Amino acid sequence: EYGGQAMDPVRQSIVNDEMVRAKAPYNVGASGLGMLGPTLISWGNEEQKQRYLPKILTAEEIWCQGYSEPGAGSDLASLKTRAEIVGDEFVVNGQKVWTSGAQYADMMFCLVRTDPEAPKHRGISYIVIDMHTPGITVRPLVQMTGDRGFNEVFFDNVRVPRKNLVAKLNEGWIVANATLFHERNMLGSASGSEQRFNRLLALAKSITRGGRPLTQDPVFRQRLVELEIRVEAMRFHSLRQLTDQIRGKNPGVEAMINKLVGTELNHDLATAAMEAMGDYSMLSRDDEAALDHAYWPYEWMFSLGLVIGGGTSHIQKNIIAERGLKMPKSR
Ligand SMILES: Cc1cc2nc3c(=O)[nH]c(=O)nc-3n(C[C@H](O)[C@H](O)[C@H](O)COP(=O)(O)OP(=O)(O)OC[C@H]3O[C@@H](n4cnc5c(N)ncnc54)[C@H](O)[C@@H]3O)c2cc1C
């Protein structure tokens, strides 16, 4: 009813795997498809589902995520961007940071403080904002990859219709967490790691050390095997998650495991490639002598960002320990 093909999660998973195998380019609508869409299906009202879901599927509207602020990253509930209700509108003032793709986005799903007097987790609301509204300024930030992937976003008396509130006023924290679960699930892709591993293997076969291919060097070979075991474990973990999904279970601590293990594995795969390449790992894309089209130096820097984005590894470990292993809360 919202423009999709009404297929089951198994088909979705097969399509995702095939897209990775076909080396399809990064999906510019990923935040809408993977994060906001599933959140709206659970928490949006009928009007919001009708209005937003079809345009996520057709990529007519690109979304960005307005969570982090200069003083609120891991401790997200400390966010200060204020939304005051004036008549039928919210008036938004404040600043977001590290907002991926904000310079291209049509819409933002955003956390705002609507009750500054309430305890910090309780005075937050989840609203959606049209990025073309007057009063919004987007300033790109340059990452170490050289890309302008994320931005600072400033709000100066930005007027947002009250009907853009998702779920109840001041109860945005629970909706925010629903989106985070979906984000963490999306960030650790087993088929993506498998593809990277195969690329690393091809690289190692093409490099000679001590008169033989690197794949026959006993030390590097051991390292490859350890990485392959982790890739295989990721695959089983994602199949287990798929089974849960078919049984109608929402992603829980499994999503944190996915994010933690998947992003660290991708960075370790890139680190192994960088070490295999030795001095060649310093060459950039426009250098003719670069190995494997200088994919790995870029991937090494980019994958480090994903260990941080969507919640750092330390935070995933804290949540897995507290909610999954029922260990005492960290102080
Ligand atoms: C590539 C990339 C894309 C991003 N895209 C977006 C986006 O689109 N939208 C958005 O809103 N945000 C985005 N972010 C921001 C991201 O969510 C934050 O960077 C992340 O949550 C960490 O917050 P911080 O940078 O403020 O670090 P801090 O919270 O200041 O953390 C600093 C260090 O302290 C550690 N630490 C903090 N608290 C604890 C604790 N309780 N226990 C143990 N260790 C702790 C952290 O692990 C980290 O090592 C992106 C970040 C990156 C890198």
**DSSP helix count?**
9
User: Could you say what the CATH architecture of the largest domain is?
Assistant: Beta Barrel
Structural class: alpha+beta
Helical fraction: 40-55%
Straight-line N-to-C gap:
46 Å
What would you report as the Rg, rounded to the nearest angstrom?
Answer: 21 Å
Given as residue ranges, the uncertain stretches (5+ residues, pLDDT < 50) are none
The fraction of residues assigned to DSSP E strands is 15-25%
Bound molecules: flavin-adenine dinucleotide
Please give the number of β-strands. 10
What number of structural domains do the residues give?
A: 2
Order of secondary-structure elements: HHHEEEEEEEEHHEEHHHH
User: What does the main sheet amount to?
Assistant: 4 strands, mixed
Calculate the mean pLDDT score and round it.
94
Structure overview:
With 331 residues, this protein is of the alpha+beta class. The protein has two domains: 26-169, Butyryl-CoA Dehydrogenase, subunit A, domain 2 (Beta Barrel); 188-324, Up-down Bundle (Butyryl-CoA Dehydrogenase, subunit A, domain 3). The protein contains nine helices and ten strands. Strands 1-4-5-8 form a four-stranded mixed sheet. A four-stranded antiparallel sheet has the order 2-3-7-6, with no helix packed on it. Strands 9-10 form a two-stranded antiparallel ribbon. Helix 4 packs parallel to helix 7, helix 5 (190-206) packs antiparallel against helix 6 (218-246) and helix 7 (253-277) runs antiparallel to helix 8 (295-308). It is globular, with a radius of gyration of 21 Å. The model has no long low-confidence stretch (mean pLDDT 94). The structure holds flavin-adenine dinucleotide (FAD).
